[in-house]
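Session log. Operator J.P. requested a structure for one protein chain; no other inputs attached. Running the standard single-chain path with token output.
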Amino acid sequence: MGRRGPLPKTRRATGPKAPASPMPAPKWLPSAAKKLWNTIAPSLLESGQLNPATIDVLGQWCCVTIELRVLAATIAREGSIVPGLHGNVISAATLAAGKARGTLASLTKCLAIDPAAANRLAATKPEPAAVNAVEAFIATRHRPEPGTPEEEEAREADLQIFAASVGMK
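Structure written below.
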């Protein structure tokens, strides 16, 4: 069950803006992780999810993803259960893969790559201001200088238009 009450208002962290040019992969990434970086970084940069503050997170995500692929290949080759001293045991690759999946899930949330995080970010984007017919009409009118008789007449006319639009007399 979820928490009671209204949903909390989420705030989008305002971090550094994404640069216009492509971001090169960090130098510490292994070559396989750099290939993955070059595949995913352009789309994240375009969507605004990759910025200078999230470079290291994406680098870690790439490393863990490659590590998980290697572990999956090892499990496929050797199996998830291996013979041990006291019978069959879970392989080290299977245990490491479980931890890598948890790490990958956390990093995915940090980068807002998963659908739930993407929806959370979309929900925090400001909605366009609702356009009220009266406000739109008033905005298009010429506004006289404050304190002049023309300004008083315009204010009175605006109030009459507003009253008519909401059904007041």
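Operator note: The first helix runs from residue 31 to 47.
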